[in-house]
Amino acid sequence: MKRSHSGTQLAEQNQNRMLRMSENGAQERILTLESMNPAIRRVEYAVRGPIVTRAVELEKELQQGVKKPFTEVIKANIGDAHAMGQKPLTFLRQVIALCLYPELLNDNKFPEDVKQKAARILQACGGSSIGSYSASAGVEVIRQDVAKYIEKRDGGIACNPDNIYLSTGASDSIVTILKLLVSGQGNSRTGVLIPIPQYPLYSAALAELEAVQVNYYLDEENCWALDIKELRRALDEARRHCDPKVLCIINPGNPTGQVQSRKCIEDVIRFAAEENLFLMADEVYQDNVYAQGCAFHSFKKVLFEMGPKYSDVVELASFHSTSKGFMGECGFRGGYMEVVNMDPAVKEQLTKLVSVRLCPPVPGQALLDVIMNPPKPGEPSYKQYMAEKQAVLGNLAEKARLTEEILNQAPGIQCNPVQGAMYSFPRIEIPERAVKLAKAEGQAPDMFFCMKLLEETGICVVPGSGFGQREGTHHFRMTILPPTDKLRILLERLKDFHQKFLQEYS
Question: How many Å from the N-terminal Cα to the C-terminal Cα in the chain?
Fold first, then answer.
């Protein structure tokens, strides 16, 4: 058989490779930075970036007795409520304990409604065990409970459990929907409009999928409001070089903490309908609304209340998670998405895609069910559950107020009201000398600031450049989750450090 030219070339390449291996005395690596998927190299995720790596190193140095200007590292970089000291809600953990160890169903220490809830979840699982696989879209009973929760939240607007997909937190389902939406090459490649500042999941996912990131800027001077004129500018510019067909909204905002008004949501829905855009509504902070005059309105509810002209045509995927809200159960990785007006043929493809990963973690699904279907008035656990929930949300509201108040006392720091979610995104003044030094070190100016802050005070926050910001502005994101006394210390230290920083580099 005659050898092909390509076969000859392959043989020569292998021979050359073997020669290099023998010369080096070691096998050449197959997977290198040069040979790996270049899209992965472009992925960045500031929330767990170099600042956090250094914070972990500092913690170890403190444990080893290395002297520092501080006695502990305060991590305010990530919205991890329980890591910050928030106590788990009793009812949630009691039900999950029984699901994980069903022998406890016979223990008289547990209230009757806890036992009934756990037994119902177990009966819906294969072999009555949450150690079994579930259906790819999630346990059917849990999807039904999610649908009932959405109907109640939205004032009775119908929700079909077949449109519910349970997921590994909200992040997993967001990436899944983006996978369905991204296609084309060159100028026909899918463009995805995301808010700036944004949660870095979006920019990271778009980089991995090699989609086109289309930035629309939130209005910092107007409490990070969304401006339709800015959406229009971003869309018109994007159409010159890609095919923008997705609009992502984060409400309440991360990292900005704003809560969109109903009018703003109506305007966004009209814009999406007029421009034929698929809407992705990230609503994981829907329980976290603190400011007077603000309220959470789901995109699904507003869409259907706008009537068939919009509710029959606008395609929407909305997302929620057990990681945030008042529960803060990040480690269970529970969440869901609801799809509206999705083409049935595409829904089949979505079901196929989620089935590749078999199913979301079943303990996370069980926890989601407990949140979707909490104790009712008159049941044994109701009073304690409501008291714990209200205490968490009341505490967060106080910390949101405290953060704005203390940071705005410092010249050179501007902090918008934290209307919702669990973060603040203050704007900071950075002197020109510090900007030049940062550039000389190959750093963004706010990274330079945040690293100095960490080294001198032990406070770990994330530079605004990791979330996106207008050219020439500098920010950082911090969570408001630390206990109130520790948060007050953090804010005072941060305020003092910034004044010292301004003096040192001016």
Answer: 77
Average pLDDT on 94-123 reads 93
Asked if 417 and 404 count as a contact pair (C-beta separation under 8 A), the reply is yes
**Contact at 8 Å (CB) between 295 and 145?**
no
CB-based burial label for 100 (10 Å; 0-12, 13-18, 19+): middle
d(CA 81, CA 481): 6
pLDDT at 269: 96
Asked whether the beta carbons of 476 and 426 are under 8 A apart, the reply is yes
Tokens at residue 164, please?
A: 């519910």
pLDDT in tens, 260-273: 999 999 999 999 99
pLDDT band, very low/low/confident/very high, at 18 (cuts 50, 70, 90): low
Question: Which residue do the tokens 């979610």 mark?
Answer: 421
Number of Cβ within 10 Å of residue 245's Cβ equals 18
**pLDDT 10s digits, 90-107:** 999 999 999 999 998 988
Is 420 within 8 Å of 290 (Cβ atoms)? yes
Q: Find how far residue 122's CA is from the centre of its chain.
A: 29
Tokens standing for 133? 């696989």
Asked if pLDDT for residue 230 goes beyond 50, the answer is: yes
Q: Which residue has the tokens 């911090």?
A: 478
Find the length of the chain: 506
Q: Between helices 362-372 and 112-123, what is the axis angle to 10°?
A: 130
Contact 213, 246 (CB under 8 A): no
Do residues 74 and 490 lie in contact, with contact meaning Cβ atoms separated by under 8 Å? Answer: yes
Report pLDDT for 2. 41
Supply the pLDDT for residue 484: 92
- pLDDT(423) > 60: yes
In percent, the amount of the chain with pLDDT more than 70 equals 93
Name the percent of the chain in helix, strand, coil, to the closest 5. Answer: 50, 15, 35
Residue 67 to residues 31, 75, 138, 308, 469, Cα–Cα distance (Å): 41, 19, 50, 66, 36
Q: Is the dihedral of CA 231, 237, 239, 244 positive or negative?
A: negative
β-bridge pairing 423-424 and 476-479:
antiparallel
**Measured torsion, CA atoms of residues 162, 120, 82, 167, in degrees rounded to the nearest 10:** -20
Angle at 393 between CA 112 and CA 379, to 5 degrees: 15
Q: Is residue 173 within 8 Å of residue 167, measured between CB atoms? A: yes
Half-sphere exposure of 403 (CA within 13 A, CB side): 32
Q: What is the mean pLDDT of the chain?
A: 89
